[in-house]
Specification:
The protein is an alpha/beta fold. Helices cover 35% and strands 25% of the residues. Strand 13 and strand 14 form a beta hairpin. The structure holds flavin-adenine dinucleotide. Belongs to the 3-hydroxybenzoate 6-hydroxylase family. It comes from Elaeis guineensis var. tenera.
Length: 402
Amino acid sequence: MGSVEEHHDIVIVGGGICGLATALALHRKGIRSLVLEKYNTIRATGAAIGVFINAWRALDQLGVGAELRTKAVLVPENQDVWRNKNATRLNSCRKEELRCLKRNDLIETLYNNLPVNSVRFGCQIVAVGTDPLTSFPILYTHDGIIIKAKVLIGCDGSNSIISKSLGLKPPKSLTNCVIRGLTNYPNGHNIGNYFLRHLEGCMIFGRIPIDNNLVHWFVDWPYPDKEGPKDPKFIIELAIRQIKDYPAEMIEMVKNSDPASLTFTRIRYQTPWHLVLGNFCRGTITVAGDAMHVMGPFLGQGGGAALEDAVVLARSLAEMMPMGYFEANASDEELRKRTETALKNYVKERKLRVLRLAMQSVLVGLLMSSPSKVKRLVSLVLLILFFGGPALSHTQFDCGHL
Ligand SMILES: Cc1cc2nc3c(=O)[nH]c(=O)nc-3n(C[C@H](O)[C@H](O)[C@H](O)COP(=O)(O)OP(=O)(O)OC[C@H]3O[C@@H](n4cnc5c(N)ncnc54)[C@H](O)[C@@H]3O)c2cc1C
């Protein structure tokens, strides 16, 4: 039996935050796309996500900001506690509009705003090639389907097969791992309305309210073993071991987590020089989100940057291929030229922004959790020189109108 062959205009690989946001941004511009997701349902790993004003601006452009704001309280302050030094710093983050969203809420809202059949689940891409006749991309699925696309957007995360096909280097791994979870307090929590971080040596323990009942917590520390636990019982045990000297109510919070929310993740990041040297588009193929710029969680900006990518990419494509363009049967040659220009504009617009975020994330990561005093000092100096200090200035970025 011969292979099934399909033809589509714009194909997005990956139905995470970036893939769904990109499909929604294109939809808002009147451009149809197909998202291919390897899992069988929408799936949001990682419990919750801190969303700052730059990401809210992007969500507003996607038309889902107002709906999502009802799902998480505003967190007007953050408090850092250095346990070794017995020092505490309380900062206002009112102008950064920080809220912590359940990942499920974000993913479901993006998905629910898409037209039906925009996402094909259970469709894993296993190889990428080029059509020798047209030079457009060809995708091969795990179950033998051949998908020919005019435009291919890789939103397939940090282990991206599309990035590999562009010749991009795989991200690096830190020795640090993060356990994240959600704890529900049926009668309301009384943890206060602020983002709390305890910093001790190379470890960070944090918690942030999502609403009046639900709290997101995480613990980040060096964990050299290659594999981490998968069973929620062992994940909780491991997390509790890291915070055994912490106040009883914090240990209780971790003990009472929703087992389904728990994840153990090794931190991966793309080096800033990779972002300078990397070629993020070739022909009519490009990448966005973690597939382009996975970064450590120290700024809480990976997801926000993915949402910004979605807005800028859809805007660039729509500028070159306005509504109805694909249906108007333009020649392949013209379509290729226009797409290449759009993708080059997108990469040009995003490069400096993601480079700055990646650098700031590496430096803040070193400042917060490096065991070396020298590295911490150098990081602080560089942060002051290049970014005006370790503050939240990066959140004031505006990706502009869709
Ligand atoms: C510990 C931690 C904390 C974080 N905290 C924050 C935070 O507070 N705020 C913030 O903004 N960001 C945060 N981030 C970053 C954020 O989670 C990511 O940047 C964001 O999820 C990236 O979204 P994405 O869609 O690019 O990739 P992903 O979420 O990885 O989605 C990729 C999708 O592609 C699918 N896929 C992969 N390969 C294939 C294939 N071959 N075929 C088909 N489908 C495929 C996957 O199943 C997945 O659905 C954090 C990250 C970590 C690790």
